[in-house]
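Write out a sequence, fold above all:
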Amino acid sequence: MKIHHLIWKEMRKRPTPMITSLLAVTLGVMALVAIQNIAVFSQRKIAGDMESLGANVLVLPPNASLQDYYAADMHGETMPEEFVTRLAFARLPGVENLAPKLCVETSTSGQEITVTGILPRSEYQAKSAWQGLGMLTGAVGSDRGCCSSSASSLSGSDDPSSLATERTIKDLGEREVVLGSHAAASLALKVGDNIRLFDAKFNVIAVLPEGGTIDDSRIFAHLHSVQELAGTGPVVNVIEIIACCEDAAGSLISNLSAELPETKIVTISQVVQTQLAVNTLMSRLSWIFFSILLLVGASSIASVMFANVTERRQEIGTLMALGASRGFVTRLFLGKAVVLGVVGGVAGYVGGTMLAIILGPRLLNVSVEPLPALLAIGLVAATLVAVLASFLPARRAAGLDPCLVFNDA
């Protein structure tokens, strides 16, 4: 009889101890896969959110409160636009891009809408006082910062829809607007149509692709046009800054605070710090749970194998008397361990993935997909633990003397 036939026969004859050991291994892999899956996709979601926002540092009025960094300009507070010029003249190392914004509520076609005033790159380049500062030009050799590479917003795309991802637009006329996807749909507007805002007619030059942010429901117009027509004067709600990550986490914040003590400086890392800490904790806990459950599984497997050797002394002795080698007996026990590890690894991966897919959207509003890499980790870890736990029992079985076994009987 071949060795794999003996393995399957043995597992069918004694299913209860095998199922107990298999369950412990499966639960360990399931815990690891579920928690790691949610943590990985949660981190990806945060990275996507930060990329769609573009800026990683926000300059806000001192009395502004930041509840949602997507809506950081909807706090109702304002500050002088002159602060942007002060920051430009400061030439702070690490600053890659400045983007002042002003949000004003208005109505059009019987609907309430948010109009966001922004400055295109051409406006920066037109300011003689700012020329040579490197802002929004991405010029090689400029002293705008210490980043190893320029921010994506400096790529110079002429497509107005780049505003959705790069947070900049090259040109925007005084009576031109860019619509968010939801705003365009609700107002039934497309590129080339006209819209009335603040009793003035504007031309739609672009519709942004849906990005899943607050920008989808907004209308973007030239900052100075919004200031003039809304009668707010030269003020802004927020100054978005794209800064080198190492600077945003270091001296840049203190430099900004020293340059603009009248404002509140907020980093996106501060906003998402709690979520990142939760993700890190979840990831570490998954390995702790995984280790504990696999140790329990290893103990269970070792106990079952030792008991199996004791119960089957005569059968093992008979096999060896019939010519079975010590290596054959060792492979017989280790083969059962491999089957337990492989089945436990696959079952744990499938169960953990299903659990993550169900719990991810409910717990953290994160869509989860299977991660094949976790299958490999689960298979290798579960199989390795099962084999190591079975090694001593297998060596003990292989060391039995058939003569002594039959004499004891």
Observations:
- The first strand starts at residue 57 and ends at 60.
